[in-house]
Every structure is written in structure tokens, then in C-alpha cells.
Design brief:
Blueprint: H1 4-17, H2 22-33, H3 37-62, H4 74-89, H5 95-108, H6 115-128, H7 139-147, H8 151-161, H9 163-171, E1 179-183, H10 190-199, E2 204-206, E3 213-216, H11 226-229, E4 233-235, H12 238-247, E5 254-257, H13 264-272, E6 278-283, H14 286-299, E7 304-308, E8 321-327, H15 347-351, H16 353-365, E9 368-378, H17 387-396, E10 400-403, E11 419-421, H18 423-426, E12 431-438
Parallel strand pairs: 5-6, 5-8, 6-7, 8-9
Antiparallel strand pairs: 1-3, 1-4, 2-3, 9-12, 10-12, 11-12
Helix pairs in contact: 1-2, 1-3, 1-4, 3-4, 3-7, 4-5, 4-6, 5-6, 7-8, 8-9, 12-13, 16-17
């Protein structure tokens, strides 16, 4: 059986060489290697922790290297990063163990020539402790290294939301986050679910930020839990639940969920509508429709219908809807704490998104009944994908007006009718919500 460190090493090496999602690679490796619970937890902590802290770790390693870090052989680089991460951020692991295990990783992975370098550099990291740039000399670099966010992203958040909020966003992008479960109110009450989860050894508390939800500190592999198999809940962040609330669905509504997969928002809407009316959950990829259908079956809905549809192209076969949810593809800068590799996206990969988002919003608006409600949302914190898209829509569609929603929810003070949810304010993902209606 491979050790946790060897498993983490192989995962990180694979991620270094290939553009893959860490959670997919990690889950596959853990299942393949059949690690104990303790070893699985350590491997996960090493992988996710190092991805989160990579810029900070690389800065500290660079202080003691005579060559640019990118010129190191990948095996040596991963061994160095793992050792430095454990020394700087994992208090329960003795530095000597972190150093020795990193040297061992290099030796056992065809990188023996680098063992002396790894040993020397990691001893210097241990002796010096965590180092950060001087904030007075380079404001953006200081925050970039401290919170392991690229400088362009630090600048984006500071300029968009101010330094205090930017720091709050960055602080909340590190470390784990509680899991929020949306209660399937068609099958059980909130208190009933808390009791059922307790019988499975899971401590849950009622969520104070949104109704019909519970928070758990850990969940593990939920697919083996009877409460999950029985369809008593689905996993959904506070922000997504508030997004559904903003749509204001009523029983017997006809609802379009334009970019639905994997279907979580459609499921919450079905519960809010007490399994009445019709919810059409659209997606452009057939494989992702399968995820929606599996969720519908597990949760027991009869009012959710998944269908293949390109949200960016008008479909003349679709009739008008009472409510439309337009949760568009986005850069995901609001969910970095769940998918840490998102922080390393390049700005040019994001710049092309607003045009697609605007096109989807305009197309969705053509399906809306007069007096109906259209919600535009993203899981990102980037004004170009959020307020700029919505303001452009209002300017070019004078018959539409923005609606004030979620009145009692704390919001970023400059958002006006739009709602910007922030991790440090709302205890949720970073999220944007705007609601529109066409005047009759």
C-alpha cells in the first residue's frame, strides 16, 4: 500500500503535468490505492493544502534556490513543495519528518540527484520560518504571497471591492468550509433530518442564514449514507439557495433553469414549488443531463424535466415561462475555497466570458412572460461578469427593470438592486444575483 505522501506526490505530479481537476484526480487515486481513513485524510490535506498555498510555498523556496523554481525537475519541485508546505503550515507534523519524507520521495521517484538540494533548502525554510514580501514596497505582491493569489486577482478584488473586502475574500479562500445540505422538504423536516444524520454519526445544526438547510462539519463519501440514498437532501451552498429564493417561484409556475447541470438549483426550486408546476432543466451536454436525471430520481420529484438545449441560441419551440433562472458559466472566482486551482486561472481565459454570459441572458429574456421574473447569477466575484453584464442588459433592453430582492440578506454596500454575496459577510460562496422583470 502506498503512503499518503507518495499518493499526494503522484497526484500533484499529475496535476503539474496535466490540466486536470484536483478533486477528480484525488478521488480516483484514493479509491485506487485503498488508503486507510487516516492516510486518505493526510493525502487530501497535502494535495488541497499545497494547491491553496502554492504561491506562498514557491516564494519561500525561491529565497534559498540559486535557480528559478520553474527550472527544477518536476519530481524535485513537488518533493520540495510538499516538504515546505508541511513545515510552514502543518503544525502537527515535526519539521524533521517533513524533511526526511521529502528526501525519501525524491529518492524513490527517480530523483536521487536532488536529495542534497532538497535537504539543504528545507532546512533553511525550517530555520527561517514563513517569509513574506515587504507590504510597503509592493502592496499587491505582499497580498499575493500571503494569500497565494496571483497579483492580477488581488488587484481585481481590491479595485472592485476595496482592500478590506478583498482581504476578507482572500482569507476565506483558504482552508476547508462547512458543508450545507438543502433539506428535501417533500420527504422530511429540518429537525427530522438532523435526527436522521445523528443516527449515522453525523452532527448537523440548523443553518441560520437560510431556511430548510443544515450545516455539517464533515460528510465524507455521502453516496453510502442511507439518508442520501433515500433522497432526504442534496448538497447546496447558502448562496445557491438564496439564488433560488430570489427567483420567488410559486406553486404551478412554469420555470426554466437555463444552465442547470448538475441540477441543484432545479431541485431546490422543485421543493419550493411543492412538486407542482413544471421545471425545465436545460443543459448543452447530454452527459450532464444524466446527473440531473439521477438527482431527480433520488429526490423523488415529478415536476423536473431535463432537456438538451443551448442556452446561447434561441429555441423557437420553447413557450414562455413564468420564472427563469440564468445561472451562467463563469470564472468561478467565488468558489476558490472549494476548487483551489481556480485561483491560478489566467485573466485572458476569463475575459471572453462576459460576451457569452450576456448572450445567454439576452436569449433567456426572450422566453420570459410579461411580469415574470428572470434571475441572472454567477459564482464569481468579478464585476465584468456581474454588474457590467447586467447594466449592459438594462441599457439595451429598456422594457426591463431590475428588481430589489433578498431584502434581509447582508450585501456588499455598493451593489444596489444587485446582490453580491461574499464569504466573509454571508458565510457563503462568493456569488452574484440580479433579478429582472419586463414591464407589462
Amino acid at each position: 500500500m502506498k503512503s499518503a505522501r507518495q499518493t499526494a506526490f503522484e497526484i500533484l505530479l499529475k496535476l503539474h503535468r496535466n490540466n486536470a481537476y484536483s478533486n477528480i484526480v484525488l478521488n480516483s487515486a484514493l479509491a485506487e490505492n485503498n488508503l486507510s481513513q487516516r492516510e486518505s485524510s493526510l493525502a487530501s490535506a497535502l494535495v488541497y493544502g499545497l494547491i491553496e498555498r502554492q504561491l506562498t510555498v514557491d516564494y519561500n523556496l525561491g529565497l534559498y534556490l540559486s535557480q528559478p523554481i520553474k527550472k527544477l525537475r518536476p519530481e524535485a519541485l513537488i518533493a520540495l513543495r510538499l516538504g515546505a508546505f508541511q513545515i510552514l503550515f502543518m503544525d502537527k507534523i515535526p519539521p524533521s519528518a517533513a524533511i526526511n519524507e521529502s528526501v525519501k520521495l525524491a529518492r524513490e521517484n527517480n530523483c536521487s540527484f536532488a536529495t542534497g538540494l532538497i535537504n539543504a533548502v528545507l532546512h533553511k525554510v525550517n530555520a527561517s520560518g514563513l517569509k513574506l514580501p515587504d507590504k510597503a514596497n509592493n502592496f499587491y505582491k505582499y497580498y499575493s504571497v500571503k494569500y497565494s493569489c496571483p497579483e492580477w486577482l488581488v488587484r481585481l478584488w481590491v479595485e472592485s471591492y476595496g482592500e478590506e473586502n478583498a482581504v476578507g475574500i482572500m482569507e476565506n479562500s483558504l482552508g476547508g468550509t462547512p458543508v450545507v445540505l438543502r433539506v428535501n422538504t417533500l420527504k422530511i423536516t429540518t429537525k427530522g433530518l438532523i435526527k436522521k444524520l445523528a443516527e449515522e454519526g453525523i452532527e448537523a445544526t440548523e443553518c441560520s442564514e437560510v431556511e430548510d438547510a443544515v450545516t455539517v462539519d464533515r460528510l465524507g463519501n455521502i453516496e453510502h449514507l442511507e439518508t442520501y440514498k433515500s433522497g432526504l437532501y442534496h448538497v447546496q451552498d447558502i448562496a445557491s439557495q438564496l439564488c433560488c429564493k430570489a427567483l420567488g417561484v410559486e406553486n404551478n409556475d412554469t420555470v426554466y433553469d437555463m444552465c442547470s447541470a448538475p441540477g441543484g438549483k432545479a431541485f431546490t426550486l422543485a421543493e419550493k414549488m411543492e412538486n407542482t408546476g413544471k421545471i425545465f432543466a436545460f443543459d448543452i451536454y447530454p452527459a450532464r443531463l444524466d446527473l440531473i436525471q439521477k438527482g431527480v430520481k433520488r429526490l423523488g420529484f415529478t415536476n423536473v424535466f431535463s432537456s438538451l438545449n443551448d442556452a446561447s441560441e434561441f429555441n423557437s419551440k420553447l413557450e414562455k415561462a413564468d420564472k427563469i433562472l440564468c445561472d451562467v458559466p463563469c470564472s468561478g472566482l467565488g468558489i476558490i475555497r472549494k476548487k483551489p486551482e481556480i485561483r491560478y486561472k489566467m485573466p485572458q481565459d476569463i475575459d471572453k466570458l462576459p460576451n457569452l454570459q450576456y448572450l445567454i441572458l439576452c436569449t433567456a429574456a426572450r422566453y420570459l412572460k410579461k411580469g415574470g421574473v428572470l434571475v441572472y447569477s454567477t459564482c464569481t466575484l468579478n464585476s465584468k461578469e456581474n454588474a457590467d453584464v447586467c447594466n449592459r442588459f438594462l441599457k439595451e433592453h429598456p422594457s426591463f427593470r431590475s428588481l430589489r430582492v433578498l431584502e434581509n440578506v447582508p450585501r456588499f454596500e455598493k451593489s444596489g438592486n444587485f446582490v453580491t454575496l461574499m464569504p466573509h459577510i454571508n458565510k457563503s460562496d462568493g456569488f452574484f444575483i440580479a433579478a429582472f422583470s419586463e414591464m407589462e
